[in-house]
Specification:
By secondary structure, the protein is mainly alpha-helical. The protein has helices spanning 9-12, 29-39, 43-46, 55-65, 70-79, 81-86, 91-98. 50% of the residues lie in helices and 0% in strands.
């Protein structure tokens, strides 16, 4: 059994069985929090939030993915494929943002 922290999210629960009002993404947390605060009618707090630099998460993706070979990256994408679909991520866009050249893997 895999450590729960690394388990694909779709195995933890059944997100399709719930009617969520929102799905937030941490790499856009300032924008997401702004939306939540406005949705919660807390506009005065939302206006005070600063936007984060989107290159922050891209730097980390690049840093860690450059340590992996393309075969392992392909297996990671396969393992988390349903999480990518569920949360609207593109595996190819994610790989391109990492700066790693793995054109030979099928994702």
């Amino acid at each position: 059994r895999m450590n729960d922290h690394w388990e694909p999210f779709w195995r933890h629960c059944s997100p399709c069985l719930h009617e969520y009002s929102a799905v937030l993404k941490l790499e856009n947390i300032a924008t997401e929090m702004s939306w939540i605060l406005k949705y919660s009618h807390l506009n005065d707090i939302a206006e005070k939030l600063n936007q984060t630099n989107s290159s922050f998460s891209e730097r980390y993706v690049s840093k860690y993915f450059k340590q992996l070979d393309c075969g392992l990256i392909g297996r990671l994408f396969e393992k988390y494929k349903f999480d990518f679909i569920l949360f609207g991520y593109s595996a190819r866009d994610f790989l391109n943002a990492s700066g790693v050249d793995c054109r030979n893997i099928s994702i």
